[in-house]
Design goal:
Blueprint: H1 2-18, H2 33-43, H3 62-76, H4 81-92, H5 107-135, H6 145-161
Amino acid sequence: MIVLRQVLAAFLLTLALIGPALAVNPDEVLDDPALEARARALSLEFRCLVCQNQSIDDSNAELARDLRLLVRERLVAGDSDQDVIDYVVSRYGEFVLLKPRFSVQTLLLWGAPIGIFLIGAGVMLVNSRGRDKTVNAGGGNSLSEAEQAELAKVLKDRDREV
């Protein structure tokens, strides 16, 4: 009985894992294996505009199917991979790319983490230098003579008790 449950669990897990691979319908597959491989590789670069966290190759959405067909049409027409990418981006915008390109429009996206890090490091450096000056402003000893005498008396009394 336990073995049957394990086999059933393994079967269900296998079905769950191959689910995304079933997104490309058999009627979409190109006859030329080389073109089909290029189409599959390109489909992994485009974001499903409905699902947004899946490639069009993994999505079952109707718009993803339309994009997969568009990619295949462009490849059959003789476009290079870059031509296909440029064409899809021209129609749907940079958002369609799962990995955005580095350009003037995305400079802030790519540069912001570095800029924030540098600003934070600068603030920490300025604060640490300012703190050193306040500690050493009194020549290393900021107690008056009366306070020093009182401290010495307290320490002397403490040493007698121990």
